[in-house]
Amino acid sequence: MNINKMTFVTNMLKLYLVTDRRYHPEMPLDQQVRTAIEGGVTSVQLREKDLSEADYIEIGKSVHAVTHSLGIPLIINDHPTVAKAIGAEGVHLGQDDGDVDAARKLLGANAIIGVTAKSVEQAITAERCGADYLGVGALFSSKSKTSAKRISFELFDSIAQSVKIPIVGIGGINIDNLHYLAGHSMAGVAVVSALLDQPDILGGTRRFYQQLSEVLK
């Protein structure tokens, strides 16, 4: 990965929103995303597990129209074909959700490809295969992904030290436990409920962003 791309990816990971439209069913997802971006979100991952591919593409187009207009990259969870169909900036792959090389061939050299890593071995392999960043966790118990297994901060730091590509902390991060991440090597955090499970998405995101900026100093 060239220096310019690495800088872009590192910066975009500061406050990485992962979507879940179930928190505000009364509000269109593209509106939720727009509001969160206005509050400080620096990148968005579209992660809606219960949709058919056709519906995923439809909702993805509406979300991408918002993110693109605001200069924020949109990453599609697990589905390179959906990312290709809507012109999204990249894709995020779990360990069981696809191959980095195949995604790269489909999406091209400029696409941003993230990979979930829960061990040093997975991290090194993902970097070697061409991943642009790693999602590492779960750091805390997750409200939106209850099956996610926590990893220790010691392992988190070992993973960060094992690769040169940026990492984003994931899993159960909220404004009450954010301070525990101070001093750990990360480009930013990926969150769902910390931003979307709020009556006031804009105000909640602004408060979270302000505290995150202190943690990442």
TrEMBL record:
Cofactor: binding comment: Binds 1 Mg(2+) ion per subunit.
Chain positions recorded as 4-amino-2-methyl-5-(diphosphooxymethyl)pyrimidine binding sites: Q45, L46, R47, E48, K49, N77, T116, K145
Enzyme Commission numbers on file: 2.5.1.3
GO MF term (any one): thiamine-phosphate diphosphorylase activity
Coiled-coil regions listed in the entry: none
Pathway in which this enzyme or protein is active: Cofactor biosynthesis; thiamine diphosphate biosynthesis; thiamine phosphate from 4-amino-2-methyl-5-diphosphomethylpyrimidine and 4-methyl-5-(2-phosphoethyl)-thiazole: step 1/1
Cofactor(s), names only, from the UniProt record: Mg(2+)
Enzyme class: transferase
Pfam families: TMP-TENI (PF02581)
Residues that bind 2-[(2R,5Z)-2-carboxy-4-methylthiazol-5(2H)-ylidene]ethyl phosphate: S142, K143, S144, G172, V192, S193
Superkingdom in the source lineage: Bacteria
Domain Thiamine phosphate synthase/TenI: 15-195
Keyword set, alphabetical order: Magnesium, Metal-binding, Thiamine biosynthesis, Transferase
Binding site for Mg(2+): D78, D97
Record's catalysed reaction(s): 2-[(2R,5Z)-2-carboxy-4-methylthiazol-5(2H)-ylidene]ethyl phosphate + 4-amino-2-methyl-5-(diphosphooxymethyl)pyrimidine + 2 H(+) = thiamine phosphate + CO2 + diphosphate; 2-(2-carboxy-4-methylthiazol-5-yl)ethyl phosphate + 4-amino-2-methyl-5-(diphosphooxymethyl)pyrimidine + 2 H(+) = thiamine phosphate + CO2 + diphosphate; 4-methyl-5-(2-phosphooxyethyl)-thiazole + 4-amino-2-methyl-5-(diphosphooxymethyl)pyrimidine + H(+) = thiamine phosphate + diphosphate
Matching InterPro entries: Aldolase_TIM, ThiamineP_synth_sf, ThiamineP_synth_TenI, TMP_synthase
Task of the protein: Condenses 4-methyl-5-(beta-hydroxyethyl)thiazole monophosphate (THZ-P) and 2-methyl-4-amino-5-hydroxymethyl pyrimidine pyrophosphate (HMP-PP) to form thiamine monophosphate (TMP).
Family: Belongs to the thiamine-phosphate synthase family.
The protein, known as: Thiamine-phosphate synthase
Name of the encoding gene: thiE
